[in-house]
User: Fold this.
Amino acid sequence: MKSFSIPKEIETVAETLEKGGFEAYLVGGCVRDLLCGKKPKDWDFTTNAKPEQIIDLFPHTFYENTYGTVGVVIDETEDETLKNIEITPYRVESEYSDNRRPDVVRFADTLAEDLQRRDFTMNALAYSVSQKNIIDLYQGQRDIEDKIIRTVGEAGDRFSEDALRMMRAVRFKSQLGFEISHETEKAILEYGHLLAKISKERVRDEFSKIIMSSEPMNGLVTLKKLNILQYVVPELEETIGVEQNKAHSFDVWEHLLRTVQHSADKGWPLEIRLTALFHDISKPESRRWGKEQNQWTFYGHEVLGARRTKRILENLKYPNKIIEKVTMLVRWHMFFSDTEQISLSAVRRMVANVGRENIWDLMNVRICDRIGTGRPKEDPYRLRKYHAMIEEAMRDPISVGMLAIDGKRLMEVAGITPGPKIGFALHALLEEVLDDPIKNTKEYLEKRGVELVQLPESELKALGEKGKETKEGADDEEIKKIRSKHWVK
Ligand code: ATP
Ligand code: MG
Assistant:
């Protein structure tokens, strides 16, 4: 007997299958998570009912053909994990002709057959909701307690059937903080080359899960140790042992690992983590000994690196949106480095290069990069200064462009031709609007504009000059506000 707190929707699904005369077990990741004391992120059932029989039992389902899985849709729930509960008939897998998933899916009659096809002992546990009973044919509970990842059956056989399981072992290690059993590791060392036959999309999905786990550094080190990094991102291997200068305590490989780990510690999204991992990927190819500097130089590594990153991500079949963003962040990652003093115009150019929506991501990459060198945290003053400058650079300056009327319209309504009067009048209008923003309407400004251009030129000029001064004062005021908000001068 083992009692977990199971949502009532899940109990109802189990009950419905059993009342219909079928067996019903929770299986896979959700049972593992329950035993680890974690809330499952989805709920999967396995049953001896066939897809049509499952569909007949539930009012609202959809059928995913590949594995005979039927999704049961629960409409009246807030809990995301309960919206779509998957029920898959027992099955065995047959005919692994090419070390990748089975060619055909065959249904099976017993739970035992279904558990036998599963990858790891911790994933081969079933739980009967009605009997509160765990079915554990492979000592999965013991392995979860010991935090061990071990294949169901002989590891070499299981990896020859589906080589992706080797990546999955590493993925679970970095997600769960478990160790891979010795025999399982040995089999990965022996059968790793079979990963070359696996589709890039499947490899990519496991790779992304490693990068998105809480321990990407651990996962990448394990891939390397088990000799399978070369089937995922061979380019990363070239960074191993590439020494840098005094400012860096680590070789390029370790620097990249620490940078991506910090991005995970911060909980950043995939694009930032990939940038963190690849930002110096071309340091090996751009490293030159600088005679004058008497140290290594890496000129242009960000340009080469952007191209290389693009090829890596394309090869792994990442979506274009991700490729574009990561490539762009790698290309400009040097911006906030080295420079003691960045000018406002340089920040403006950078905003134009990377786009307003990406500038904060670039800052975050830079912070991870810095931590990744093993140096102490960035001087907080300098970080705040960067923040203030970015805000300043992105701010719309105060100008006549903010008015609800422009020079062309003013000439139309006033019936006059181009001349200095237009500029004076617009600045005079700006003065009024800065004084009282409610006046910034087409109606008011057109009426008032016509009045202004009828004034003698000298009088209008004086009003215009005064408007310019007020504008500059207001602009300075806004910049001051930004700076004091960030506590910088
Ligand atoms: P997660 O929490 O990441 O979803 P999970 O254990 O549910 O982890 P899935 O990839 O969703 O992992 O797979 C669900 C279950 O299906 C696994 O627990 C395992 O029993 C089985 N499984 C998935 N992929 C394979 C595979 N390639 N070979 C054997 N069994 C697999
Ligand atoms: Mg799952």
User: Anything to note?
Assistant: The pocket of magnesium ion (ligand 2) is lined by residues 29, 42 (CB under 6 Å). The chain has four domains: 8-145, 147-232, 267-394, 400-485. The chain has 23 helices and 13 strands.
